Amino acid sequence: MKAPFWSSISPRKRKLALWMLGLLLFYTLLGFLILPPIIRAVAVKQLSKQLDREVSIRQVKLNPFALSATVRGLLIKDKDGEPFVSWDEVYVNFQLSSFFGKAWVFKEISTTRPFVRAQMNKDGTFNFSDLVAKFSTNSAPARTESRPLALRVDRLRIGGATAAVADFTPREPFKRTIGPLDITLDNFRTDPDNKNPYAFTGTTDAGEQISWSGFFYLDPLRSKGELKLFNFTLNKYAPLYQDFVRFEIRGGSIALDAKYHFELSATNRAATVDDSAFALRDFKLGAPGDSNNIVDLPLLDVTGANVDLQNHQATVDMVIASGAKLFLSRDKEAAVNVVELSKPAESATNAPGGILFLLRSVTNAVAMLLNSTNQWSGTVRSVDITNCALHLEDLVNSRPAKLDLSDIRLAAKNISNVPGTNLTADFSLRWNTNGSIKTAMTASFLPPTADIQLDLDQLDLCTLDPYLEPKLNLYILGSKLGLHGKISLRTPKDELPQVTFHGDASLDDFKTVDGVGAEDLLKWDSLRFNGIDANLNPQSVAIKEIDVDDAYARLVIETNKTINLLNALRMTNAPATNETKVAVSQKSAATNTPLPQISIGTIVITNTAVSFTDRSLQPNVNMAIQQMNGSISGI
């Protein structure tokens, strides 16, 4: 019978095998059983000392054969007893090949449910300000520049990450929980030419969604990817800006899809945004203390946005807005509501520090763009605005002026400052109840040229008669203004712009009464200006024919010997004094601008009447001229 294998080997080899087996057993016991509690105890002690915070670790596991480590249940409490940093588990799998190459290699680094808490206190400090001060003071001296650490991570995964963010500097503290977030980074390398793909998804406690994916290179730093934001509710961030503005955002959510590319190197700094989109839904803005909204925008979409910062170009494929409402008002002190709300709040100096930092960054970025030596070129290929409204109210005069513009529509193509680009636009709206304005335009900005077809129908001027009050003491009870024609703009080289108008105008169903006795003053059924030709350079107006139909004028001398027409014009019957003569002469001398040339082919008067009453005499004198007809030519 053959001897057993163990008996067949030499004593020296048996001794070596026992030593190897013992070392393996010791290595196993050391890795699995001995080192984990030691590492856990030392880590808790040192972290607590260095961070000056209570630290606990539930478990540390090592796998000496897989070269992996797991840390479970880390909790670092802040000085107020709240969690500062924590995670359920962190797993690191180191690779043996790191000892035989230039790069540190990790097969996997993963963390489960990490948490971090960042808080800005009322005094402007952070909950981690003491750590920043401590480690910046105790930092190691600067070393000479060396090659970056070579690192390889086959898979980096962060699952269920959350962050609690709080800002106690505004009058209403801002608190938000971001997460859970999932981040995946595959094949990460610090090699200059390695393409590092990444993916990032998550939500907030308000149901807002974030998605970010793409890839990046480290040397030179460059990246290309796509960022998506969905259902970000604006008024939930009110504590961040409420101390800085006078208005309040009562509703609205945004969505963003941005595809970007940037590169930062010693010789090139480039950034582009390609085929990106922005959406705003149910936006409402108002003034504090007023339940009425000043701005109401149900829908705004911007698609196909492209920006090239290096070449200073921006284009947008489509802008769509629908159902927007804007309420503009001016109070008795001539303060316009939107202007007042756009001013910084009185407490703006106490605005949250984070917002001030963000505003400074945006301001600096805009300043860099404005100070650029290259002019920006921009194009909006299509604009479609439908079913919008504008409500105007003016309380400056003793009688308030109100105007409602509704059913506002704008369809425009090729809005651009690029030379040679032709803009086309159709615009229409409803004026109060029965009036309408329609325009059709083709234009170019460089050089300035335009052809505008203008159609105004049945515009009621009663809304605007309060503005006549300082000069006229009368009321407009009825009017229907119409204007149909074409406006042309041409800009010859090295010459003044040439503006011409060709068309017709009308003012029908016009009626006024004086502001004293509310008696008829001037009215007519129809007043038409046919064949108008007007030029701005040189100034001239030619009217082919003016037709006046069923007109009526009333002249009254009151018992106090004032005349209703002069009262309506707010003129006195007193003779002119020397002071008034001097004022009139000075005004005439100051206006030496030549009047435009005006010519009228024919004035046709049909069925016109004039009445005269003198109430200063007893008995009163009454006279009337009726059914006047005639024409005047060659004016």
By secondary-structure content and strand pairing, the structural class works out as alpha+beta
Strand content: over 45%
How far apart are the first and last residues' alpha carbons, in Å?
145 Å
Proportion of residues in helical segments: 10-25%
| Main β sheet profile | 26 strands, mixed
Subunit arrangement of the protein: single chain
Please describe the structure with a list of short key phrases separated by commas or semicolons.
635 residues; alpha+beta; 26-stranded mixed beta sheet; 26 strands; elongated
Structural features, described:
- The chain contains 8 helices and 26 strands.
- It has 635 residues and is of the alpha+beta class.
- Strand 6 and strand 7 (174-189) form a beta hairpin.
- The longest helix has 41 residues, at 11-51.
- The chain is elongated and about 155 Å long.
- It starts with a helix and ends with a strand.
Secondary-structure blueprint:
Elements: H1 5-8, H2 11-51, E1 55-63, E2 68-77, E3 83-94, E4 104-112, E5 115-120, H3 129-137, E6 151-167, E7 174-189, E8 196-204, E9 209-218, E10 221-233, H4 238-241, E11 248-264, E12 269-286, E13 293-308, E14 313-322, E15 325-330, H5 337-342, H6 353-370, E16 377-394, E17 401-416, E18 423-431, E19 435-444, E20 449-459, E21 474-490, E22 498-514, E23 520-535, E24 540-557, H7 564-568, H8 578-590, E25 597-614, E26 621-633
Parallel strand pairs: 4-6, 5-6, 14-16, 15-16, 24-25
Antiparallel strand pairs: 1-2, 2-3, 3-4, 3-5, 6-7, 7-8, 8-9, 9-10, 10-11, 11-12, 12-13, 13-14, 13-15, 16-17, 17-18, 18-19, 19-20, 20-21, 21-22, 22-23, 23-24, 25-26
